[in-house]
């Protein structure tokens, strides 16, 4: 994988063997790609855009030509500037309700001017980079807004299919249905029903997706409409489309209402465009969308569309996904689809006037119903966010889009506040006899949960010894006062309260008037991880027997329940360690910590100086203990690796270097096994002698090399190495830097631990042991062989 490919993969992009959509190509290659991919795709999108643009214009009450103008501008201009090259822009169903309301309040000419203002506001949002905040809007609110819009569209267009007209609200449309059923226009109902049936059935026909379902439905409905004569409502375009375009006029009315209309159109159009661009990114393997640039394109497009008497535009997912599915590779497809609409309007407008309005109503009815997405509902139910979705839908349907969205945001914020301040309180008798009662509090303690906490605390009988165990990542002033008041009151009445803070020291800091403002960042480390932990220093002296007893109690109460299932499995199947780990008895070297391993992974042998007496050492200088461990690990446990780990600031190596141990003492007798290491250290003159290290550290490295050599004196080790079943690995641990190095057995070099990407194993896989010369796996660390 080269650097550019790796960078794209890291950024979340997918790569393909061929040129990616929107990628850089030569002039001839670009033209060939446009002719092969973008031109056919543009024709497919054009055929979908025509009925949708007309239907959306009809649903808003705008002139039909306004929908086509918006489609042309969205295709050609917004497509040329777009930050998401494969996204198609044009009039959108999501803006239908908003635009219909603006037209009802201000008239069409003023609505065009409001569209211009919304476009300028979008450009400002993009320049200030505020537009990307649209991604922070909760999906429950966005999907609820779209579902509410979909219900509104479907209710209005159902009346059109009955031969009536669409009203401005869902309630008005529902009230109009009985009257439209009484004066039913059978031709409109038949055409609308046929359109809906074709839209639903066509995609199910094998290989029929080559021709877009909306095109088939509108063509079939138009042919059916020719049987009903002139009394059937049809598309009505001006004879002179260019001359009859209504140019914008300044709206009349209060400045506040005008500003609200501009902001509403701008924000909803921006949110829909940004979300559509993010969704389109998931459909192709090309460059990711530049959201700021996309917002500029939408702003310029709306400014020009409004100035030319067109509807507001947004990026639309239906046409964009069709564009990708049709094989588009660049923005040329989007721009060409706008050009085809322009040519069609100027030269073939009479063909459009054959289309029955009921056919367009059927297309929009299905579009509206599909905005109520059952899949989104199931996801929101699983994530506990369905309430804000329902509130948003009901608000949009009954009150209006802005009101519904604000209600949904309010419910979402309230729900997030409840989740962020979630906590649990458990009151139990203390089974370990540390106290009479133990109260365990977990989560975030904020004012919303204070009442429940106080109720639980007040249930504890008076005059008892209570341990208040706090696993708290946040505590506000209200929670602190509640806990502190209860504690002081309980102790005043003869009880005793010990506050045991596990996750952090929020209560202690509040007592000292040092309460923080931010939640404690999550940490994977248990509090007993290090001997300098706050809890140990607070309750016991670290070097006393009481400290060990407290540590064992901590393990049994908190860690044991977590590791018990794994230990039960290890106990049942027996031990199968991956390494024999030979290291020093120094208390600062913790093998499982520096190798990120756990129970059952390492078969450890620890002694002063991590020494391996030679197999042929006889008499009092020999050592049966280390030898027995080596033979048991190799012959019985069949470990694939033996690791010898030295370390910095080694007391044994200091004693060997200074000759300070008493020769007749047990320590002096043991350290005689390090004499070959000292000879090796004094005799080294090669280029890799680590002259930049202090003498004691150089001796430690030489000692590791000597012990690796001593291991070869054991027959069982030598045979296993010769068969390729065993690898010997040297390690060196720098205590102060908390860094592990590998020791090259031939050159004595120290090298940092690296895991090559090509040989790294997944966390759930068993690490490979490697083969001679190709690397060794030590608890998932692949070392250089």
Describe the protein.
The protein is an alpha/beta fold and 785 residues long. It has four domains: 34-393, no CATH class; 423-523, STAS domain (Transcription Regulator spoIIAA, 2-Layer Sandwich); 526-574, no CATH class; 576-783, Beta-carbonic Anhydrase, Chain A, CATH 3.40.1050. 54% of the residues lie in helices and 10% in strands. It contains 29 helices and 14 strands. It has a six-stranded mixed beta sheet with strand order 8-7-9-10-11-12. The protein has a four-stranded mixed beta sheet with strand order 3-4-5-6. Helix 6 packs parallel to helix 7 and helix 8 runs antiparallel to helix 9 (213-225). It is elongated and about 120 Å long. Mean pLDDT is 80; it is low at 1-24, 531-535 and 757-785.
Task: Describe the secondary structure blueprint for this structure.
Elements: H1 3-10, H2 27-60, H3 64-81, E1 88-90, H4 96-106, H5 108-127, H6 139-161, H7 170-182, H8 186-201, H9 213-225, H10 255-281, H11 291-307, E2 314-316, H12 317-325, H13 332-352, H14 357-370, H15 374-382, H16 386-398, H17 401-420, E3 423-429, E4 437-445, H18 447-458, E5 465-475, H19 477-492, E6 496-501, H20 506-511, H21 534-539, H22 545-573, E7 579-584, H23 591-594, E8 602-607, H24 624-636, E9 641-647, H25 651-658, H26 666-671, H27 675-683, H28 695-711, H29 715-722, E10 727-734, E11 739-743, E12 750-752, E13 776-778, E14 781-783
Parallel strand pairs: 4-5, 5-6, 7-8, 7-9, 9-10
Antiparallel strand pairs: 1-2, 3-4, 10-11, 11-12, 13-14
Helix pairs in contact: 2-3, 2-4, 2-9, 2-12, 2-13, 2-14, 3-11, 3-13, 4-5, 5-10, 5-11, 6-7, 6-14, 6-16, 6-17, 8-9, 8-14, 9-14, 10-11, 10-12, 16-17, 18-19, 27-28
